[in-house]
Amino acid sequence: MTSLFGSRLTVINVGIEGFAAAVSDVGADVIHLDWRPPAGGDGTVARVNAMLLGDRRVDAANQRAMAAFLAVDPVVVGVRKASTVISGLGTHEHRLLHAGPPIAVAEMCGPMIGALIGAVLFEGWAETPETAEALLRTGAVNVDACHHHQAVGPMAGVISPSMPVWVVEDSHSGRTTFSNLNEGLGKVLRFGAHGPEVLARLAWMRDELGPALHRALRALDSGLPLTPIMAQALHMGDELHNRNGAATGQLLKQLAPALVRHAESSDAAARVIEFMAGNDHFFLNLSMAAAKLRLDAGSNFEGSALVTAMARNGVRFGIRLSGTGDTWFEAAARRVDGLYFPGYGPDDAAADLGDSAITETAGLGGFAMAAAPAITQFVGGTAAAAVANTRRMEAICVTRNEVFSIPIIDFASPPVGIDARLVLDSSVLPIINTGIAHRLAGVGQIGAGITSAPEMCFVAAIAGLAMRMGHDGTGPIIAAPGPVST
């Protein structure tokens, strides 16, 4: 096939990829542009979003929020019993925290309800799983989102009053965030398991692991700064969400001398060190708490379109914006596209679950995937795709976090600061590296993969922000600023 000018015909195809294949079949060269209408095709929201893109008040608020985010210096200062440091989680309050936006017990997925049952048993509020479930379903035990209490937890994310939690503090402001301790892989509470071995491990973490870590941290002059560990880990192949082996090794390197010196016995020190060394994900919960600390600092800036939380409860995916405070904007949680362990497949999987997407919200995880090309062996794809994913996130971010750098992209800093306006304008959705939980309680992790935040969360968030900013879709549209430069 030739054009009128005698050369081979080249066709630019926009949108539906099937058209490109049809044109290619008849002998033409095809350039396919992956384009979708902005704002999910909602013309009113697209117009409102264009107005927000041209609103310099939003740009200024974004700059203030990002300045607060980047100024945070996260330091882990201790490991304490949750009831002593997390508001609303006292020992006399029968309340449990969970991952994701708030959800009623009756709506919860299998791993979430299983983990809550385990926590009720661990606290001694019930003697059998059946009695524990009844307490949850009748409201005798209250539940709330971790994010409402300055906390985060991976997968089901359940935190109960007696559990030890990391205490991460901003060295400048004294602001704190919390996360539970990582149990490792296999049958663990965060995947809904609650058998005797799970409860025994939780008791050991409460009675020996937590106190040992706290003594070691208190022996340090001013706690343990997390940014240097995270920066080094990005140079060593971690992306600090699904791959944390280097960060865990660096943490153990920093704490091992104090763990030994201040241990109750050499055997106790050996048990703690062996547990940490055998759990490559041990640092994940610290990465999450550090990310939340930064994002909380960037919250509640009137007019800002920056995303300050992305979280999933296995049923719904929710986001928050700095300029809309504590309001959640939700859509159905997606399935994760990934690699499954032998014997499992998509029909076995729960929908996207956990608070760990706080790492992506803070410019880590999928946004720093270029730092961890080997992760593609675990979540699928290629090393080149890992780099491409980081580059693609530049389209929706307002700046870079220059305290971090990634060797494979010439030591460029990862993009950070998701602007909800740019997400809708570009139809580029935030990418997330994550584990895949079985849909039934207690089976555990059955794979890992990649997913993205649902577009409808951003449609709802932009509508909410526009209402607060006084945009009704009828004003003039002003030229919009661009995303972070490459």
Could you write a compact summary of the structure shown?
By secondary structure, this protein is α+β, with helices and mostly antiparallel strands. It contains 16 helices and 18 strands. It has three domains: 1-35, no CATH class; 43-67 and 298-469, Alpha-Beta Complex (v583 fold); 70-288, Enterococcus faecalis V583 domain (Enterococcus faecalis V583 fold), CATH 3.90.1710.
How would you describe this structure in keywords?
single chain; 37% helix; 16 helices; disordered N terminus; Enterococcus faecalis V583 fold; 18% strand; 5-stranded mixed β-sheet; 4-stranded antiparallel β-sheet; v583 fold; alpha+beta; 486 residues
The CATH class assignment of the largest domain is: Alpha Beta
Secondary structure category: alpha+beta
Strand order, largest beta sheet: 6-8-7-3-9
Global outline: globular
Say how many strands there are. Answer: 18
Distance, first to last CA: 38 Å
Please report the number of helical segments.
16
